[in-house]
## 1
Amino acid sequence: MKERYNPHEIEEKWQRKWAEARIFQPEPDNREKYFITIPYPYLNGNLHAGHTRTFTIGDVVARYKRMLGFNVLFPMGFHATGTPIVGLVEQILKKDPETMRVYNKLHEIPLEILDSIKSSEQIVEYFSREAEAAMKSIGFSIDWRRKFTTTDPHYKKFITWQFNFLHAKNKVITGAHPVRWCPNDENPVEDHDILKGEDATIIDYTLIKFKLNGDILPCATLRPETVFGVTNLWVNPGILHVRLRVNNENWIVSKEAYEKLKFTDKKVELQGEVSGEELIGKKVSNPVTGSHVYILPASFVNPDNGSGIVMSVPAHAPYDYLALRDLKGADLTRYGITRDVSRIPLISLIKVSEYGKYPAMDAVIELKIKDQNDPKAIEATKLVYRREFHGGVLTETTGKYAGWSVAKIKDVLIHDLISQGIADVFYEFSEQPVICRCGATCVIKMVENQWFLNYSEPSWKEQVCKCLSGMQIIPPEIRVDFENKIDWLKDKACARRKGLGTRLPWDKQWMIESLGDSTIYMTYYIIANYLDKFEPDQLRDEFFDYCLMGNGDPEIVAGSTGINIDIVKSIRSDFEYWYPVDLRSSGKDLIPNHLLFFLFHHVAIFPEKYWPRAIAINGFVSLEGQKMSKSKGPLLTLKSAVKEFGADVTRLYILSTAEHIQDADWRTADVDATRKQVERFQKIACDILNSGNNNGELKLIDRWILSKLQHRIKETTDALNKIQTRRAVQNAFYLLMNDMKWYERRGGGVARKQVLDTWIKLIAPFMPHLCEEIGEEIGGNFISLSSYPRVNASLIDKNAELAEEVTSNTLKDIEEIIRLIRLKPKRVVIYTSPSWKREVLKRAIIMKKDKSLDMKNLMSALISDKTMKIHAKEIPKFAQKVIADIQGMDDELMNSLLDMDFNEISALNEAKQFLGREVECNIEIYSADSPEYDPQGKSRFALPMRPAIYIE
RNA sequence: GCGGAGGUAGCCAAGUGGUCAAAGGCGGCAGCCUCAAGAGCUGCUCUCGCAGGAGUUCGAGGGUUCAAGUCCCUUCCUCCGCACCA
C-alpha cells in the first residue's frame, strides 16, 4: 500500500473490483434477506449534498447489514414523471438566462451540452447517466441491474396496473377541488408562478343564506356557529352590488364577489345591479333561527372579502359590536328606520372563561377601542376568536348544539347547514391580492370531474395507522409526525393535464400525478431484473396480478402474455423472497407526502405481511450555514464533492456531522480536517502493516486497547442499529483513533495488527475503499463481504482499564502540579493509597449494594475493626468523602472496584518508564503504607485510584 | 393559527438525575520537529490559584430532589411543514 493517501486511485480500483466481482448483485438464497430502498432522485438536476447524505445513509446501512450476514438488496431508479422536467426543457429551449446560469454554474453542466438539449427525453437521459456515474463514484453498493426510469414504457404498464387496481377497489373517485387559478392564462398557478401572495392559502368560508323576500343575501363567515347570535346584517352603502341567478336562486352580492363566483362550480348569471343604499333598512330572515333582522350600514364591510355582505354578531365579534355602537344617535330615517339601533339587544351564544356574557364588548372595553375604524379592532377580533375557539362552549341559545366546544362543532355544523340547503362553501385567499407572473389577479377555481385518491376514507386511514403502529420509525420521536399527518391528510387529486407520466387507463385525457406513481415502485425493482425478457405490451394486468399479488394462475398468465412460464414463476418467487421493504430511508421533506402515500398504497394493495417494516428519516444539508437551493444556489454537487475530497472523506464527513433529523452543515474547513484524519488513519495503518511481526505476550496496555476496542464495537453496532451514523463514526473512527494514539504513546505494539484488522471492518461501511485497500494488505476476501466485528466479552478487561485510568490521571496530576509550581522537577515521588483506605472503600461499596450505606452504619462497622483503630482520627473525614463519592457510582464501576484484584503499585510500576519519559524526570513509587521517602508527609493524601504526589 | 423540532463554552456539537467544568471536532495558544514555512506530533484552551484546589456556568425565571444541563411549571427566542408541487 502506498504511504501517500490517493483517494481517487484507491476508489476507482475498488469500484472496478466490486463491479467485476458482481458482489452487489444479490439473488434470492437461503440467507435472511434485507431490502433497503431510498427514494429515487428526481431528474431535473444533478445530485447534490442533500442526496449525498440520504443515499450514503442508505449505503452504510446496506453495507452494515451485508456484513452482518444478510442478503442485501439495495436498488436504485430515477424519477422523471411530472411537470418540472417539461418546464426545464422549455426554459432551455428559450435560452432563459437564469436557467442557463443555474444549470451551467450550479449544476455544472457544460454549455455545449445544455445547448444540445432539445427534449425532455434528453434531459432524462443526461441526468440519469450523470446520477448513476455520481453514485458509482462515491461507492454505493447498488445493484445497478435493476435501474429504471419512471418514463420507461415497462414502468408505465406497472403504473397502469396499479391504478386499475386502485380504481377497482374504489380508492380512486371523482370530485371537484379548489385551485389557485389565473383567469388570464386559464391555468392553475403553482408556487413559482406567483408574483405576489405566495404565502396565501385557500380558506373555506361558510356562506349562510339570509332571505330577503325571494332573494338570498349570502354572508361569508369563518364562524358559522355564531349564526345563532345574528342581530342584523351589514351592508356598505357606498358599494355596488349585483343581482345574480346562482343555480336556481336569486343572490345579491358585491360586484367583486360576483367575479369570484364565476369560477366556482355554480352556474352564475348576472341579472342587474343593486346599490347598497337600496338594501339598508330592509329586514331579512335568519335561515337558522327564523328571526327577522335589519340590514344596517357599515363602512368596514369590504366588497373584496367574501360576498360583500356581512352577518352581525355583536356579542362575539368586536367589529359588529363597534359598528352597532357607532350608529348610536345616527339618523337612519331615510332607510325607514326610526328606532335607535344601537340598543338592539346582543345575543350571547358562547361561554368562555376569560370574558363575561358579551366577549366582544369586554374586549372592546379592555383594549379601549374607539370605533370600527380603530386599527386595534383587528387585534380584538383575533383575541376573541382565539379564546372562543379554544375555550368556548356553546350555550342554550344554540339549541341542540348547546354544550359543544366551539373547536369541535365547526365541521358538524357546516355539514348540517349545507345539507339543509341554507349554507354553502365559499373559498377565499388568506391574503389578497394573489398576483400571477403574467400580472393578472388570481382567483380560486373549482376544477370539476377531477380524479382523487380517496385518502380521507376512515377505513383506509385506519389501516395505515395499523401499519404504522407495527413499523419501526427512526428516530422514534417522529412517529407522532406521521400520526398527525395521517389524520390531516385529505383526498388528493391524482391526475393532471400537463407533464410526463402514465395516462389514467380509464380516462386517457388525464396524466397520473407523479406522487401517485411512486408509491409501490419498490416492487418494480424485483421485476426490473427481468426487463430484457419481455416487451412492454406483454406486461398486462394479469401479469402483475400474479407476480405481485399472487392472484391468478401462472400458466394462464404465461399463455395470455406470452412470457415464459418459468420467468413468471421466478418473478413471483423473487417477490415472495424480497418483499416487504425492510427499510425506507429518506429526507424529512417526504414525510407529509411521499412517505405517507407509500404507506397508504401499500396497505391498500398488499396483504399485511408485505407492509413496510421501517422508515428512517434524515435532515437536510446546508453549505457553510446557508440553506442549499437547487434553483438559486448555493449548491454542492455529489460529483464535485467526490472530485475534490474523494468518496471516503465525503461519506465519512457528511454522516459524522449530524444525526437523524438534524440538518448537517457542510463546511469546507471541517471537511479538510476530516481528510487529514483519514490520511492519519491511512498512515497509522501503513505503520502497523510495515512494523513487521511483533508477536509477544500481551502486556497491560495491550489488554487495555483490546478492551477499549470492545467498547467501541459495542457502541458502534448499537449506533448503527439505530441508524445513528454520527455516533457510529465517533466511536468507530475518532474515539478509536484517540485510543490508538494513547496506545502508541504508551509504547503498545503487540495488539496493533489485531486492532487494525477489526478497525477496518468496523469503519468499512463508512469508508469502504480505503478499508478494502488496507484489507488487501492484510489478506483475505473483500472487506465489504467480511463479517462485521462483534464484541468479544473475554477481551473486556476492567483491571486494565482501571490501571490505565490511574496512570493517565496520575500523569495529569503531576503535569498540573509542575505547571503550577513552574519548576523543572528533579524528583517525582508517587504514593499509592494505604490499605486501610482501600478497605474503607470496599466496605462502603458493599453497604451501598445492600442499600445500608450511611455514615452511622459505616462508622460503627469500622470502629469495631481492630486494624482500623490506629487510623481512628482520619477515618470520619475519609468515610464522609467515600460516601459522597459512591453516591454517583454505577453498579458496573462498583463491581470493578470490588472485584479488582489489581494493585495500583504494580500498574504504576508498569507505567513507570512511561511516566518518567513524559515528565522528563525519574519516578519513584511507594505505598503510603510504608513510604521510604516522604519529607513533606504527602503520602497521607493518597486515595484509592488517586495516588499522592511529591515533587522536588 | 395548527403541528413539530430546538436554544450547552469563541464556533459546530454530544449529553440515560449522581466521576459533568460537561465527549468529539473546528478555531486559538504553547512546546517538539524543521534552516524556515507547511504538515505531523504533544499539551493547554470558563475564572482565579507557585501542590493536584476553589468559584461561577448549560436561553431566562421559579420549583421538585440528599443531588438537575438532565424532571415539573412559567416565560422569551430560533427553525421547519401546512398540499395537489416534486
Note: Residues 593 and 626 of chain A are 25 Å apart (CA to CA).
## 2
Amino acid sequence: MGTTQLESVPEPKYWHLKTVIGEALDSEFQVGEILPNERELAARFGVARATLRQALEQLELEGRLQRRRGVGTTVAPPRVGVDVSTARHRWPGAGEESWQAVDCVTAPPPAAVLRLLEADDAPDGGADRPVYAVRRLRATHGQALAAEQLYVPAASVPGLVTSQSLTGPALARGVLRELERLPLEGQDRAVELGSARADDARELDRLPGAPVLVVTTRYLSGGRTAAVSLATYRADTCRLTFGDAGDLQIAS
Amino acid sequence: MGTTQLESVPEPKYWHLKTVIGEALDSEFQVGEILPNERELAARFGVARATLRQALEQLELEGRLQRRRGVGTTVAPPRVGVDVSTARHRWPGAGEESWQAVDCVTAPPPAAVLRLLEADDAPDGGADRPVYAVRRLRATHGQALAAEQLYVPAASVPGLVTSQSLTGPALARGVLRELERLPLEGQDRAVELGSARADDARELDRLPGAPVLVVTTRYLSGGRTAAVSLATYRADTCRLTFGDAGDLQIAS
DNA sequence: CAGTGGTCTAGACCACCGG
DNA sequence: CGGTGGTCTAGACCACTGT
C-alpha cells in the first residue's frame, strides 16, 4: 500500500481513501494481517488522522476491518453466515448448540417489549405480572456473535418449579425447558439496525454504540404471545441468513 | 477511609449527549419537528461541534433523527416495517405493487454475483454469457425505501423477444414477465449491513456511504440459480419483517 | 512501560437548500 | 443570498493492550 496522490475532485477525501485502502486490502493483505497504525497511515496519505479514521470506520462497518483499542487494525475475515431462519418453528434452545443460556432474572421488560407481550391482554398493561428475562449468548469458534434477551411471562411456563433455589443458568435452562412443552404455532421476526447498549457491547467484545443487527422475534402459542426475544448480532461480523443460504457470499 | 470510588468509568461525552438528546426527543419534540442547528446545540451543551455531531450520528443511525444538508435536523418518524418474507415463494414483480421497474441493461454482474449465478455451472465462469441487470425501486407514500439490482441470466428467460427495440423500463418488465413463467422452487436470503454505493445513495435520497441493509436473494428453479437480487434498504428508515410481524415495534 | 485506537477541541472551508 | 449540515485540519489527552 504505497502513497497515493489524492485528486482534487468533488469526491470527499475519506471516500476516496476508503476505495484505495479497500483495494489494497484485496490485493496486498491477508486476513488477520495488521495494518500500519492510524498516525502512520494518515501521514502516508497526507491527510489528518480524523479523515483517515472516517475511511477506516466505513471499512469496519462493512466488515472488512477490525479495530481494537490498544492492539491495532487488522484485516477481518469474511462475515459469518448465521442462520436465523424461522422455518424450523422451534422454541429457543431446542436443539441449538450455538446458544448458551447464561442467566435468568425476573426483571421487568422494557416498555416496547411489554407492548408486544400484552398486546392481546387487558389494556391495564399488566406490568405487575412477573416476567422471566433469560440471557443467552451465541458464539461460534469462540467468537461471540450475538447477545439475546428472552422475555418469558411466568404465565407461559406454569409448570416451572420456583420453590427450590434455582438461580442463574440453571433457572434459565429450566425456563427454556418448560417453554418447549408448549405448542409453538408461529413466529414473527423483524430485523433492524441498532447500536449496542453497554451490556451487550461488553459481551460482544465491542465498544458501546457499535452497530448491531437487532432481531426481534415473537413466539406465538395458543393465539397469544408466549415469549419475545431481542437478539443483537454484531453487524460487522455477521450476515443473517434465512433458509439454506449459508454459502451466500456478497460484499456490499 | 482510603480509596473512594469516583467515576471509575467516565462515560464518553457523546454517549451521554446521545442519551440526553434521545430523552428530549421523547418528551419535548414531535415527529417532523426541526431541532436547533448543530452550532447552537453544541454551544448549548458546552461541547465542540464534532462531539455533538457524534451524538447526532448515532441517533440518526438508530432512526430517531433525520439530517439533510442545507435544511436541518428533524425528528424522524418510527421506522417503516417492510415485508421481505420469503414464505410466499414468488418471483420478483409478481403482484408486488411497491416495486417499480425503472431500467434494464445487459451489463456484466459483479464478481460476487457471478459466483452465485455460475456456482453450479462449468468453472470457466461463463463471464461471456449475457446477463440482464434489472433495476427496481421500492417506495411507500412517496418515500424511497430500497433500490434493487436483479441479475437474470439470459438463459433463464429464453422466451424473451429481444429482436424488437425493447429498452429501459419496457425491457425490465419483459424480463420480469418471462421470469414468472418458470417454476420457482425456492429462495435463499441473507441480510447484512453495508454502505450505500453512490448510485444507490442518490436514489435513496441519502449521501454515499449511508448505512443500508443489504438483502441478497437467490431464486432457484430447475435446481439452478435462475436469478440473483441485491436489494439495499435504507437502514435508518426501514425495519425488515419476516412473516406477519408488520406491527412489531421495538427500539434498539 | 510504550504503542494502539478512542475521544475531544476550536477552528476553517465547502456543498447544498430555500427564500 | 444566508443558513444548514458535510468535510477537514492539527493538534491534545485518555483508555486500553500487550510485554
Note: Chain B touches chain A through 48 residues (CB under 8 Å).
